[in-house]
Design goal:
Radius of gyration: 34 Å
Number of helices: 3
Number of strands: 0
Order of helices and strands: HHH
Strand content: under 5%
Shape: rod-shaped
Helix content: over 70%
Largest sheet: none
Number of domains: 1
Length: 102
C-alpha cells in the first residue's frame, strides 16, 4: 500500500506542478500580449490624435499669423481674402478677434 500511496501523491504533485506552470505561462503571455497591444493601441491613437489636433492648431495659428502679417503691411481685408484664398468673413473674424495678437 505504501507504493500505491507514494505513486498517487507523486501524480497529484506532478499534476499541481503542471497546472502552476500553465498558470505562469498564461500570466506571462497575457502580460506580454496586453502590454504589446496596449502600447500599440496607445501609440496609434496618440499619434492620430496628436497629428490631427496638431495640424488643426498649427493651421489656425499659421492662418492667423499670415492674415495679421499681411494686414500689418497695409493689405486690405479684401486683398488678404484673395491672396490667402479664404472668405472675407474669416479675415474679418480673425482681424477683429479679442485674442492677443501674436
Amino acid at each position: 500500500y505504501q507504493n500505491i500511496y507514494e505513486m498517487r501523491m507523486n501524480a497529484e504533485m506532478d499534476h499541481a506542478s503542471r497546472l502552476k506552470g500553465a498558470e505562469n505561462r498564461g500570466m506571462e503571455k497575457g502580460e506580454k500580449i496586453g502590454i504589446e497591444k496596449g502600447e500599440k493601441i496607445g501609440i496609434e491613437k496618440g499619434e492620430k490624435i496628436g497629428i490631427v489636433k496638431g495640424e488643426k492648431i498649427g493651421e489656425k495659428k499659421g492662418l492667423k499669423k499670415g492674415i495679421l502679417a499681411l494686414h500689418s503691411i497695409g493689405k486690405s481685408p479684401e486683398e488678404i481674402s484673395i491672396l490667402m484664398d479664404i472668405s472675407l468673413e474669416e479675415v474679418y473674424k480673425i482681424l477683429n478677434s479679442d485674442e492677443p495678437k501674436e
